[in-house]
């Protein structure tokens, strides 16, 4: 029997799984469970990359995945992230519950592949998931600037392809056209302009890479927990998490 890859968007645990028994344990009897199977890992990663399930998702065990967009970005696995030669690795995430609704952002900073600090804040009672993701990435860019000034090689990992493409692909064309696009309004324009200016100063020194959310990448999971804690605590200033950096305890917090 050919290998299948199971995507769970809504269940006891979300992510990409390689066997039906594990997938079933996360969705069986779970109210509103949403999942699909795919023939290849690349199809599963493409489908799961946006973090939200497509409107056509059902409790079916088979489906045909959409082809990835031509201007999509590569998704890095946990193994590839660990192997990357960078002194500082910054993970970002934004959450919103519901969307639109209460939003917050989180960041996890690793130095020499060891967790160094966690950050949270930017609570907005009337935010969106995209804005929260952009805010988190913006904070990472601010941190990255300080790290590069100290000659520290730095990579940023973000699970929002929208945020990455806004800054690294689309903004350059929007700027050339007077910050306009054919499809209409550029949402989050002021924030994107600020971030694009910052990115232009840093792009030769840093990388911004994509990682799937909720597939067990520790840094991403910790940033996620910080974004949800920001919502719960209504923390507006973006500030450092000062409790003990007990990874297991933090991962047990509410996930986004």
Structure, explained:
The protein is α+β, with helices and mostly antiparallel strands and 256 residues long. The chain is 37% helix and 24% strand. The protein has helices at residues 20-27, 41-48, 78-83, 129-149, 161-176, 189-202, 218-233, 247-251, and strands at residues 5-10, 15-17, 34-38, 88-97, 101-111, 114-127, 154-158, 206-210, 239-240. The strands form 2 sheets. It has a 6-stranded mixed beta sheet with strand order 8-7-4-5-6-9. A 3-stranded antiparallel beta sheet has the order 2-1-3, with helices on both faces. Strand 4 and strand 5 form a beta hairpin. Helix 4 packs parallel to helix 6 (189-202) and helix 5 packs across helix 6 (189-202). The radius of gyration is 18 Å and the shape is globular. The two termini are 34 Å apart.
Taking pLDDT < 50 over at least 5 consecutive residues as the criterion, the unreliable ranges are: 50-68
Shape: globular
Number of strands: 9
Secondary-structure element pattern, one letter each:
EEHEHHEEEHEHHEHEH
What kind of sheet is the major sheet?
6 strands, mixed
Radius of gyration: 18 Å
Q: Which structural class do you get from the secondary structure elements?
A: alpha+beta
Q: What's the number of helices?
A: 8
Mean pLDDT: 87
Indicate the proportion of strand residues: 15-25%
End-to-end gap? 34 Å
Physical arrangement of strands within the biggest beta sheet: 8-7-4-5-6-9
The proportion of residues forming helix, as a percent range, comes to 25-40%
InterPro entries: Ribosomal_bL9/RNase_H1_N, RNase_H, RNase_H1_euk, RNase_H1_N, RNase_H1_N_sf, RNaseH-like_sf, RNaseH_domain, RNaseH_sf
Catalytic activity: Endonucleolytic cleavage to 5'-phosphomonoester
Biased composition (Low complexity): 51-69
Protein name: ribonuclease H
């Amino acid at each position: 029997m050919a290998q299948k890859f199971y995507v769970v968007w809504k269940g006891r645990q979300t992510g990409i799984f390689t066997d039906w028994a594990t997938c079933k344990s996360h969705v069986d009897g779970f109210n509103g469970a949403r999942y699909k199977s795919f023939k290849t890992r690349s199809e599963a990663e493409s489908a799961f990359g946006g973090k939200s399930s497509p409107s056509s998702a059902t409790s079916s065990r088979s489906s045909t995945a959409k082809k990835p967009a031509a201007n999509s970005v590569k998704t890095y696995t946990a193994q590839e992230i660990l192997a990357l030669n960078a002194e500082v690795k910054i993970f970002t995430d934004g959450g919103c519950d519901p969307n639109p609704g209460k939003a917050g952002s989180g960041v996890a900073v690793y130095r020499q592949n060891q967790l160094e600090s966690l950050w949270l804040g930017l609570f907005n009672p009337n935010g969106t998931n995209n804005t929260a993701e952009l805010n988190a990435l913006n904070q990472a860019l601010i941190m990255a600037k300080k790290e590069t000034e100290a000659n520290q090689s730095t990579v940023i990992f973000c699970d929002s392809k929208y945020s990455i493409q806004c800054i690294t692909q689309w903004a350059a064309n929007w700027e050339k056209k007077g910050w306009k696009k054919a499809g209409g309004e550029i949402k989050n324009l002021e924030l994107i302009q600020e971030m694009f200016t910052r990115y232009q100063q840093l792009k030769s020194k840093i990388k911004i890479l994509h990682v799937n959310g909720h597939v067990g990448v520790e840094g991403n999971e910790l940033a996620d927990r910080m974004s949800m804690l920001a919502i719960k605590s209504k923390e507006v200033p973006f500030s450092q998490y000062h409790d003990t950096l007990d990874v297991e305890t933090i991962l047990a917090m509410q996930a986004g």
